[in-house]
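User: For documentation purposes, I need each entry recorded in a consistent format: the amino acid sequence on its own, followed directly by the corresponding structure tokens. There are two entries in this batch. Please keep commentary to a minimum and don't merge the entries.

Assistant: Recorded as requested. Entry 1:
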Amino acid sequence: MLFTSIYHMLSKSENFHPDDYEATVNPKKQKPVILTLNNTLQFLREQGADPETLKLIQQQCTAQTEKLFKKVFSTKGEVRPKFRL
């Protein structure tokens, strides 16, 4: 890469312009993305996924989430252990 830069500088009689130097030395940190159902579906829509398939996925995930929620937070007189975060 260095020789390529030198070649172009000499062949074009130009000064060296390190356009990507700052990005290489100090790269920007990417924010972590929290994946949710809505984020995932939006990404799939942008990629051109079939709307009917996306609707089916959303219905299935919502139904499973509701079942899990009911199972974990059922109030049938059972004492559930407290969760610590």
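Entry 2:
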Amino acid sequence: MGRRKPEQPRLAMGTERHSLMAAANMETVDFCCYDNSFKAVTLADLKTMQIEVILSGNALYSQKWAYREAINAAQSKEELEAIAIEFTFSDFSEQVEGETE
């Protein structure tokens, strides 16, 4: 299955995209999803995704520091081996519009 031809220009992610969409008075742009499918998204959608990316990154970074502290506090090989490193990823799929974690 080949890639479909975009109906709209693709713009860079982030504030540059926000500014260009607003300046061009564009209601939607195509967004490439994780599975290489495209979905039309609004400026509000992009802003929501940007916040979710930031929140998810902060949550992962916090977990990393907690693991680092546990590793540094370990007094023996056994204590170190007992540390199970399993990152928990944020899931915003069930979140209600206008609600934040």
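Summary note for entry 2:
The CA atoms of residues 73 and 80 lie 9 Å apart.
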